[in-house]
Amino acid sequence: MRFILVTGMSGAGKSTAMKVLEDLGYFCVDNLPIMLMSKFLDLAYGKNEDITKIAIGIDVRGGESIVELDSILEGIKGTDRKCEVLFMEASDATLVKRFKETRRSHPLTTMGRVDEGIQREREILAFLKKKADYIIETDSLLVRELKSALEKIFVENKEYKNMFINILSFGFKYGIPADTDLVFDVRFMPNPYYVDELRPKTGNDKEVNEFVMDSQASKEFLDKLMDMIKFLIPNYVAEGKNQLVISIGCTGGQHRSVTVANKLYEELKNNDSYGIKLTHRDIERKK
């Protein structure tokens, strides 16, 4: 029997995660009253051999009884049952935006401010986040990317280090991405914009790629960048960081930054220990 407790911040994607797990063959129960959890597990483990995978969704709608989860989870540890905790997370800004877009009230603030409810919820769920086996931040995740991450963890049983990396190309003329963690300026590289036949193309085209990487300085930079990123990732994981946005910038965000972002993504994408996403923010802007 595999038992997953799905929890996390309201608006961070718990319901979506439950739907994905259901599609992956899990028997899913959302918002089960916490007082019934132990009884439910007794029945699931003891009576029904057809059910081998269970996911239970719990959030602050459980009220004050949610604190009882601490003792329930500790009690499970003392048995042959194993509970894996999946915690869905997102930044305050993302959560506020989602509540405004959906025009839904936060469960802890029916008449108050959303950000106040988010803060209270973080305090209430802090003990669960500490117990989490997997933390997935959904600020920049699409549903298909969340599905891919859950498949890695709960179907393919691959090691997951609670890190999601977003490699982002951008143009400095349009501003540095607000959510970036690391910014690398590649405006020193040869600029295809000044070559007439390359200007309409992007870093996704072979000709632009070859032009940018034909420089010895470009090759050395890419080698040093790869080496530094591979050094930083496990150290960020050890520090407890769950999401890393690596931004590569050139003037317009269409040639050099796209080329380097693609190279970095190709180097990192086959590592199953973390999720990874490639985004070209400004590639479609008028040249």
Overview features:
287 residues; 2 domains
In short:
It is built from nine helices and nine strands. The protein has helices spanning 14-23, 37-47, 68-77, 92-102, 114-131, 143-154, 206-213, 216-239, 256-268, and strands at 2-8, 27-30, 53-57, 83-89, 134-137, 164-171, 182-185, 243-250, 275-280.
Judging by the overall fold, what is the CATH architecture of the largest domain?
Answer: 3-Layer(aba) Sandwich
* Distance, first to last CA: 56 Å
Mean pLDDT level: 89
- CATH class of the largest domain reads Alpha Beta
Give the amount of beta strand, in percent.
Answer: 15-25%
Please bin the fraction of helical residues.
40-55%
Find the CATH topology of the largest domain. Rossmann fold
Secondary structure layout plus pairing:
Elements: E1 2-8, H1 14-23, E2 27-30, H2 37-47, E3 53-57, H3 68-77, E4 83-89, H4 92-102, H5 114-131, E5 134-137, H6 143-154, E6 164-171, E7 182-185, H7 206-213, H8 216-239, E8 243-250, H9 256-268, E9 275-280
Parallel strand pairs: 1-3, 1-4, 2-3, 4-5, 6-8, 6-9, 7-8
Helix pairs in contact: 1-6, 4-5, 8-9
Explain what you see:
This protein has 287 residues and is α/β, with parallel strands linked by helices. The protein folds into two domains: 2-154, Rossmann fold, CATH 3.40.50.300; 164-280, no CATH class. 41% of the residues lie in helices and 18% in strands. It is built from nine helices and nine strands. The chain has helices spanning 14-23, 37-47, 68-77, 92-102, 114-131, 143-154, 206-213, 216-239, 256-268, and strands at residues 2-8, 27-30, 53-57, 83-89, 134-137, 164-171, 182-185, 243-250, 275-280. The strands form two sheets. Strands 2-3-1-4-5 form a five-stranded parallel β-sheet, with helices on both faces. Helix 2 (37-47) links the parallel strand 2 and strand 3 (53-57). Helix 4 (92-102) crosses helix 5 and helix 8 packs across helix 9 (256-268). The longest helix has 24 residues, at 216-239. The radius of gyration is 22 Å and the shape is elongated. The termini are far apart. The mean pLDDT is 89.
